[in-house]
C-alpha cells in the first residue's frame, strides 16, 4: 500500500510524454528584393517544403524511439520524460548508504554501488519494484529520498550515417603537436590504429563503423594520441549515461585533454556532473548537436554548460537540414560530402553532425598542443556564414573548411 500511495502522489512529478517535447519552429520567408509574384510563390513553396521536412524529421525521431522500445521491451523503456533508458534501473546520487532505508523498505533493491574513477563521482544503482514502470518508480523514489538526485540510465545515439563503401585508398595527415584526444563512441576496427581502447558495455570493445569513421576523421584532421571508450559493445542498451560517465572518467584519468562525443540523448544529471568534473580538470568536451532536425529538443551532451557544440554543413557550405540544435551553438564543420573509414578499413561516404564533431575536436587539440588558446585559434580560423557574427545555425563559423576526409 505504501508504494501505491507514493505512486499516486508522484504522478504530479511526471513530465509530459515524448510527443509533447516537439515544438516546431516557424521558418521565416527569406528576405527578397523587388520580385514578381511567381518568384514569391516559388519562395513560399520552398519554405513550405522546408517546413514539411522539419516536421518529418520530428515525427521520424518519435517513431525511431517507439520502434526501439517495442523491439527491446525486456531491456529498454521510457523514463518520466519520455526518453529511452535501461529498463528497471535508476541511478541515485547524493544519498548516504544508511539513508536508503526508506527506498529499501518500499521494495527498491540495491544492484551495485558505483564509483566513476577519474572524476570523483559515486552513485547507487537500484532496481525498480515489480509492477512499477520506470517513470512511476522515478516519481515514487523522489518522494522516498527527497534529498537525492535520481535519474534514469538514459540511452544516447550516434549522430551520423555511413552511406556506402568505396574503393580503399591509404591516406594520412601530419599530426604535428596535438593534445591527447579521447573519444566516447563504439570501438574502432583493426585497421584504425589508436593508442588504447577500453570497453564500458557488454561485449565491448567491439568494432563499429561509426566509431571507426569518427576516429579516422580525428586522425586525418591532425589529432595525435587517440584513446577510445567503447560505450556500446554488443549491448542493446549501450550508450547509456553510466557507461558514458565511466568512459569519460577513464579518458580523463589516461590524460586526454580533449574528448569528442558524437552521441546525443536527453539531459541526464549523472552525465552532466561527469562533464562538469572533467571540465574542472581542464578537459575540453566537444559534442554533436545530432541529426533529428531543428524541431528536436536540445541535444545533450552538446547543451551542457561549457561543452563545444558542433553542427554540420555540406560541400557547398549549406547547413544540413537534419542538423539538431543545442542551447548554445559553437562551430560548424563539414558533415556531408566527406569520407572516412569503416571498421573494415574501407573508404566510405559520411553524413551527419557526428562527423563534423571530430574535425572540431582535432582543431582544439592542435591548438592546445601548440600552447595556444584554443578558442582564439578556432575563432581566427572560423569562416563566418549566415548572418554576420555568431548565430544559431552556424555558431561562430565554419572551421576545418577543407577537411573532407580521406
From TrEMBL:
It comes from the Bacteria. Residues 1-20 form the signal peptide. Residues 208-397 form the Peptidase S8/S53 domain. InterPro entries: Peptidase_S8/S53_dom, Peptidase_S8/S53_dom_sf, Peptidase_S8_Ser-AS, Peptidase_S8_subtilisin-like. SUPFAM superfamilies: Subtilisin-like. The keyword Acetylation does not apply. Keywords: Hydrolase, Protease, Serine protease, Signal. Pfam families: Peptidase_S8. Belongs to the peptidase S8 family. This is S8 family serine peptidase. It comes from Qipengyuania citrea.
